[in-house]
Amino acid sequence: MSAIEIDVTVNGAARRWRVAPGDLLLDVLRREGYGGVKRGCESGECGACTILLDGKAVLACLTFAAQADGREVVTIEGLSPDGKLDPLQEAFVEHAAVQCGYCAPGMILSAKALLDERPDPSEAEVREALAGNLCRCTGYVKPVEAVLAAARAKGGAR
Amino acid sequence: MKPEDPIVGRSLGKLDGAKLAAGRPAFTDDFPVPGMLVGKILASSRAHARIRSIDTSRAKALPGVRAVLTWQDVPRVPHTTAGQAWPEPSPYDTFLLDSKVRFVGDRVAAVAADTRAIAEEAVRLIEVDYENLPAVLDMEQAMAEGVAVIHDEPDAKGIHDARHNLAGYILKELGDVEAGFREADFVCEREFRTHRQQHCPIEPHVTASWLDPDDRLTILSSTQVPFHARRQVAMILQIPVQRVHVIKPRIGGGFGGKQELLLEDICGALTLATRRPVKIEYTRAEEFFMARSRHPQVLRMKMGVKRDGSITASSLKVLATTGAYGSHALTVQGNTGSKVLPLYRTPNMRFECHVVYTNMPVAGAFRGYGCPQGFFAQESVVDEIAHDLGLDPIEFRRRNLIRLGDLDELSAQLGEGRKGLARTIRSCGMPQCLEEGAAAIGWQEKRQAPPARDGHLRRGVGVACSMQGSSIAGIDWGAALIRMNEDGSFHVMSGASDVGAGADTVMAQIAAETLGVTLDKILVTSGDTDTTPFDVGAYASSTTIISGGAVKKAAEKVRAQIVALGAKFLEVAPEAVVCRDNTVSAADGSGKCISMQDLARRATYKEKMQVMDHASHFITDSPPPFCAQFAEVEVDTDTGQVRVLHLATAIDCGVALNPALAEGQVEGAVAQGIGYGLYEEMAIDGQGVMRNPNFLDYKILAANDMPKLTTILVPTEEPLGPYGAKSIGEVAINGPTPAVANAIFHAIGIRFRKLPIRPEDVLRAWREKNRQEQPAAVTR
Predict the structure, then answer these.
(1) Using CA atoms, how far apart are residues B49 and A44, in angstroms rounded to an integer?
(2) Which residue of B26, B281, B694 is in closest CB contact with A45?
(3) Which pLDDT tens digit goes with each residue over B156-191?
(4) Is A93 close to B18, i.e. CB distance below 8 A?
(5) Are A139 and B696 within 8 A, CB to CB?
(6) What's B668's DSSP letter?
(7) N or C: chain B end with fewer CB closer than 10 Å?
(8) Which ipTM did the prediction report?
(9) Which domains does chain A have, with CATH numbers?
(10) Element (H or E) spanning B435, and its range?
(11) What is the distance between the alpha carbons of residues B665 and B687, in angstroms, rounded to a whole number?
(12) Cα gap B343→A1, rounded to integer Å
């Protein structure tokens, strides 16, 4: 198959990549150094590869790299570009929501997509937003607390 | 002397929290090595077969394929994949590659290629000529005469009775159980059935290996047991231990599944064959059927009681299957007896267990390690007895529970596959756990009134108690080395393997507390066999008590060196020197002091002395953490659906060195425990094939599935633990299932003794019960 050229904005920076038509966005992002996009199931079931595509939380394992052409991708690396954690990331650390941390990037991005759209979510809305991000360590208690705390800190959360 | 503001006992943020939340490189697959090949294993499609021949010519001819290994290309060294201390109590019944396959998913061949696509294609091109053998899939048939022998190889070692597919056998009795049952006014005997649960770490097993410039085999792996992995790889590949370097980076969940050598050996073999870096990562499906799972068991629990509620005898007879290989076979099942029966006092106890091979996916270590099965049986029977005696289930338990000062002698009988050590209960918060847990769930109101009902919805509450251990007594050990840097910071090199639970942070807290410095002055390196001293690894709820004990000892020795220097520099007696808040000062009222930083610089450049020391640590007991768990459920009698509304856990882990991390252990274990009881099940068909190796068909709880969780840390002080700590990693997985089962009984009056408790089973039993109770009501 012939390679195609795509133009993607990743974490604010313009990128031009040559990809194969069948390449998954997950593989291309990891290959290009965005290791925070995690591989957990490659079939859209675990949420570890969650990214933001034009602001919406999507799964990079269910997205062809070619579909990102001309669009804007945010990975977890994009939340702390200068090394300083985003308040949402800080809330995850502070509330002990990170255990093994493998699902954390995806979970944080799902939460970010929620808070960008709904700054004052209820607990049920947070749980719904995180429902696609499986975590085997935390029982979700502390991640949910972290998201609500981050929302409160920004003046949201009911 | 303790600083005013203790560092242990505080919910300080994890040392690795920021890098993980930021998604920085941390896990095995985040460190690509130039020129790295991709490895892939050809898994057996047959449950039981001999390999007549393998044709690898087409695979080898594929451009980009760098190596294809079959059993003919590798050393034949019997071993166990169980990451246990040498000599392992698990049979040596496994080979790097073999001419026989024993389950669907067993290794047949391994490929290394330039890309994943080429490796996958090469695996498809390998032609295997199988001679099918009869498959033994039913554990209850495995020992019968005439059944196929799964381990007929002559060079396996340590199998109890290979000809009868018996991997291990245990029989232990304290007192006289039969006499005890004769003494009883009531005897309750019930059979329970448990199933296969998989660990489901979100990061599947992954290993990368390469030869370093000195030709040493370097292995980066998602392992809980770097030192055992080093020893095992050296043995299997027949190279000296010193030629192997194992590094554990961050790992994406373990739960016991990574206390197992699954990829390190074959990845290393591919590196040796190609002299290239190689990476192998399980797919999610492979993780399900090629990795490990929880042992299914059939349990017969029998308990005799007097009218006054005292227990005269308890006996547990277990049939378990380890699947195709005996990894952890004996020890998991030993735990089903030794950690479960002694929870209730009785002079007469008996445990008997057969662990059989079947041509099924291999079982292994899994959080709880045999206890979830045993406590499901025991806590169900105890609940039934209390009900029959007309006693409140809490009251019946309270009268019979093990208590402070008790000696648990069954543990002496049932050690790590051999004789063990008796346990003395030196700390026990169980009475308070029952009290606080009951209050959290609203036990009094909810049990005194008839169960709440709303049309077809019935509510009930149930309780279950359990305990675990803290390390394997007399076997687990670990070491730590602490070095002072010239700026007054300290580098802790600990053998402990942080599996995500926060061991590095807790080690740092212990060191900081002991040295009298703030947490930011502690740097931790762990899980690297070239750098850190030995440690058995992260399993058996041992890290805090064993590795933490080693860090505390080492820190005390380092502090003694600092005190001596402080005495010299301050010109005071050593007895008058205290280390606190990054300062070494004289407590004699003179006000003399020196900052840790100045002391360190002076020690380094003037005294020419490296302040540094190390310590090794083990204990000859295994202090149990205790746990009382309460479930409130709602049963939909129209659909059979059981919804857990609230699960409250009150737990005694001694002093919680980091309460937030301790709570996290409980909350995660509870989620797995509810899944075990109600949702999770590996479905294996009549050919030995797993039908649901994905997260759509194998359900683990998501954020919106969770009930309300309450976690109560009940403080006690364990004399054998560092700063009073016991373990907390496993115990909370034991109770959710029986607590839910007992709550279902409270709600609808039916006991379920087979796991998972599925809606169809509930509905069938509910309809059956109503048919029997109201034969007239259904006619119309």
Answers:
(1) 35
(2) B694
(3) 999 999 999 999 999 999 999 999 999 999 999 999
(4) yes
(5) no
(6) H
(7) C
(8) 0.97
(9) 4-79 (3.10.20.30), 87-153 (1.10.150.120)
(10) helix B430-441
(11) 37
(12) 65
